[in-house]
Amino acid sequence: MSKPHIAAGLSVLAKSASDANGVKLAAHIACHLSHSTPLAVNLLEFDLGYPLRSLGLRSSAYGQTPAGRINLRRASNLIYRTVGRALGEPPGGFDELDHTRYIQAAKTRLGQDGPNRDGFYLAPSFWAFSSHDDRVMVRTAWDEARRLAVAGLKALCHRDSESRSSACYRRWFGDATPSRTAAVGQVLQRVYSGLQQACVSVSCMHRVTDDLTIVEKGVSAGGGTVSAKVTNAAVWGTAWHRGGFLCLGSNFFDPLLSSRLRTTIHRTARGSGLEISRGGAILHEATHLFGNTDDLELVKVPDFFADPEFEEGKKNPDAAAYGPWICARVADLAPHLAVDNADSFRLFCEDAFARVG
Ligand SMILES: [Zn+2]
Asked: How many angstroms does the Cα of residue 79 sit away from the middle of ligand 1?
C-alpha cells in the first residue's frame, strides 16, 4: 500500500526544485524509512493520520486551508520521527506559523547534504506512490543484480580454463583481447561494489498521481531534480553515470514483461524478445551508473544494417542495442563497441548465472 500521510508530509518538504534543502531533507527521510522496519513505517503512517483532532479546523489567517494545516503538521512530525530527533519535539497543534518555523529550521540544519548511508534507498516517490509489493520487488531485484554481477565476474575469471565461460563471453562481447576483457572486468567490479555500497536513490516513474507533487532527483528525461509528476511510464528504467540515482518505469514492475532470475540461457533467434529479469534490469542500469556504459546506437555499428534482417531498425535512427538477438549480432560485428553497451553486460551476466547458478 502507498503511504498517503507520509506522502503528504514529504510533498510539503519537497515541492520545489529551487528549494534544494527541502528536496535533500525529503531524501534523508526516504533513506531513513528505507532502513526502517515495515512495522515502524506503518505505525508512523498511522500516527500521521490525525483523523479526529483535525475536525473543525478552519483556514488559517494566512490563507492555509485545513488540509494544508494538517499537512504542515504531518511534515514536522515526519521530520521529528525520522531524522530530526535533535531538533526537539515539533509543535503540538495545527498552527501554521509554528510548523512553518519548525520545518524551516529542519531544512537549514538537516538539508545541507543528501543522505550518505551505505547502500541504496527508496526515494520519496517510492514511499508516496508504490505498493509494499513494489518495494519488496526492488529489494529482491537489487540482491539478484548483485548475484548476477558475481556470476559475470566468475565467468570472466574462468574464461581461459572453462570452455562454457569462454563461449559465454564470446556470445556477448565477441573476440577477446586483453584490453577488452580488462574493460569488461572493470565495469563489473564497479557495478558490484556500487550495488553493495553506494548511496543511490531508487525512484519509480509509475503510478505517480496528479494530485501530489514531490520533487526529487531523477524522475525526468534529463535526470535533474524535478517533480515526480514528470513521468514516462512505459520504460524499464534510467540512470546516468555518477547521477546518484536509478529510476524504474512500469515495465520493470510488469510480471508479463519481467521475471525473477533466469535459469536458462538466452535465445538469440529473431523475435525472441528482450528476456529481461528484474535483477538484470537493475544490473543494466547499474552499468550506466557505476560503469559509464552506453545504450549503443546501432547506426554506429559497421555493417549492422547491411544485413537485410535488420532493415527494420534503419527506419529508427535512435535504435539502440537491446535484447539477445541484436546484442549477439553486435558482438560479432563490433566487439569493441559491445564492451561498452549496457545490455550486453546484462545478457552476459544473466547467461553466466544460468550456466553456473
Ligand atoms: Zn540503458
From this structure: 35
